[in-house]
């Protein structure tokens, strides 16, 4: 699971517990200006194919965590429970997408959308 917060104009994603080991990463900091969108999407996490694993863990139906190449994109994953999955679309970042499990999808979405720069 990942804790979502915003500090100093950055989206801060903090990987919780043993997932740090499985994902090979403890946190991500992304400028809010690089966030293109955020949505809840349980269906993406329910798929059996999450891409080619670059580093991390993939046990179908149990956990997907780490860095994967999927459909020409570099994607960071940390998901156990598909029902609590959000997808964060990025630009000008190392990752094209971040797919993570959060405690409450709507709270995470509202927090991030409320802090995104208005165009």
Keywords:
globular, alpha+beta, 119 residues, three-stranded antiparallel sheet, 3 helices, 18% helix, six-stranded mixed sheet, 48% strand
Order of helices and strands: EEHEEHEEEEEH
Radius of gyration: 13 Å
Largest sheet: 6 strands, mixed
**Which geometry do the CA atoms define?**
globular
Number of domains: 1
Strand residues, percent: over 45%
Helix count?
3
Terminal CA distance: 31 Å
| Uncertain stretches | none
Helix vs. strand class = alpha+beta
| Mean pLDDT value | 95
Helix fraction, binned, reads: 10-25%
DSSP strand tally: 9
For the biggest β-sheet, the strand order reads 4-8-9-7-6-5
Question: Can you walk through the features of this model?
Answer:
A hairpin with a 2-residue loop joins strand 6 and strand 7 (73-79). This protein has helices spanning 19-23, 42-46, 105-115; strands at residues 2-7, 10-15, 27-31, 35-40, 52-59, 63-70, 73-79, 85-90, 97-101. Helices cover 18% and strands 48% of the residues. With 119 residues, it is an alpha+beta fold.
